[in-house]
Amino acid sequence: MSKAEDLKNLNNKWFEKCPCKLKKIATQPVPGYGNPQSKIVFIGEAPGKQEDLLGKPFVGAAGKFLDEMLESIKLKREDIYITNIVKYRPPNNRDPLPEEKVDCIGWLYEELNFIKPKLIIFLGRHSMTYFFPNESISQVHGKLLIKKIPNLPTKYFFALYHPAAALYNGGMRETLIADFKKIPKVIEKITK
User: Fold this and answer.
1) How crowded is residue 103: how many other Cβ atoms within 10 Å of its Cβ?
2) Distance between CA atoms of 86 and 31, rounded to whole angstroms?
3) Which of 41, 46, 65, 166 could form a disulfide with 96 if both were Cys (CB 3.0 to 4.6 A apart)?
């Protein structure tokens, strides 16, 4: 079996196993998507309306913006892996609740340990504060965070503002684009 098939089987297992209560109201689960051998995994917060309908992460307006930023650093969606901390859409796109993160975290850990990225990039505060509860995204965005977290395959993390937030805030958009352009240097630094 190929690594892509193994990843599909992992996700199928979690479709059944995930205890998240959002599965009762979501259209479908939204597992991660992309290259199962990627050195970079992006983690967002939860699926939105488009993601819930299509079953893929970051396919709406924020996803298009993310694709533009990837292009700006010579990457494509096929080069990376992208997922969310919560795998089901919260009603009305509200923020995911702490218990929803806890219910989905086993799935995320299994994805990360399967892919074994060198760098985990947080898209927004929800994924970041799960792993770095004492940090504020406004203080650490665009910075390499180094922390050994039990049961995770890397100690290197990078925090970015969420693309959806930046779509509606010009200043944040410029900051996010500038932070995003640091990613190649961060990868170079940690893979030396």
Assistant:
1) 20
2) 9
3) 46
CA distance 66 to 46: 15
The structural domain count of the chain equals: 1
Whether 192 is covered by a domain: the verdict is: no
Instruction: Report which secondary-structure segment, H or E, holds 44.
Output: strand 40-44
Do 100 and 47 form a contact (C-beta atoms < 8 A)? no
Alpha carbon dihedral 149, 153, 158, 161, in 10-degree steps, equals -90
**What span, in angstroms and rounded, lies between the C-alpha atoms of 11 and 137?**
29
CA distance 48 to 57: 8
Residue 95 CA: distances (Å) to CA of 44, 85, 144: 11, 11, 25
Task: Output the pTM of the full model.
Answer: 0.96
What angle, 0 to 180 degrees and rounded to 10, lies between the N-to-C axes of helices 61-72 and 170-180? 40
Looking up tokens 């967002």, which residue turns up?
44
**CATH assignment at residue 75:** 3.40.470.10
pLDDT tens for each residue of 37-58:
999 999 999 999 999 999 999 9
* Domain containing residue 122: 3-187
